[in-house]
Amino acid sequence: MVAITEFQKIGIGLVGFGLFFLLFGVLLYFDSVLLAFGNILFLTGLTFIIGFRKTSHFFFQRHKFRGSFFFLGGVSLVLCRWPIIGMLVECYGFILLFRSFFPMALGFVLSLVNIPFLNDFLQSGSSMV
């Protein structure tokens, strides 16, 4: 079993509150204050969970520069009170940053669910790509 440090526990709480404020900000018609607070909490929590060096290494790799630029640019647009445009830019950056992670997450979810028809359909679709 992996030991979780106190900083990682705090980071999990900060990420949870950040996601809550992001969701709440979107539900309240893109309230810029809630979205900005959610973004700050999310990024701070991520830093607490994986550490400052690993966070900076993740965001500033050469092949992830465009995704990091859009994601952090979207965060700064939200902080400058342009919430709708900022969230769109941020979502695009998130997709660019985590594009290599999506197939693994989908495979994990499918292994948990194990729906035969859907599983066969998605496996045949991934072999076409």
From TrEMBL:
Its main location: Golgi. It holds the Pfam family Got1. Keywords: Golgi apparatus, Membrane, Transmembrane, Transmembrane helix. InterPro entries: Got1, Vesicle_transpt_Got1/SFT2. The chain crosses the membrane at residues 12-30, 36-53, 65-84, 96-118. It comes from the Eukaryota. One of its GO terms (biological process) is retrograde transport, endosome to Golgi. GO terms for cellular component: cytosol; endoplasmic reticulum; Golgi membrane. The keyword Disulfide bond does not apply. It is a multi-pass membrane protein. The keyword Transmembrane applies. It is found in: Golgi apparatus membrane. Signal peptide: none annotated. Belongs to the GOT1 family. May be involved in fusion of ER-derived transport vesicles with the Golgi complex. PANTHER family: CGI-141-RELATED/LIPASE CONTAINING PROTEIN, VESICLE TRANSPORT PROTEIN GOT1A. This is Golgi transport 1A. It comes from Hippocampus comes (Tiger tail seahorse).
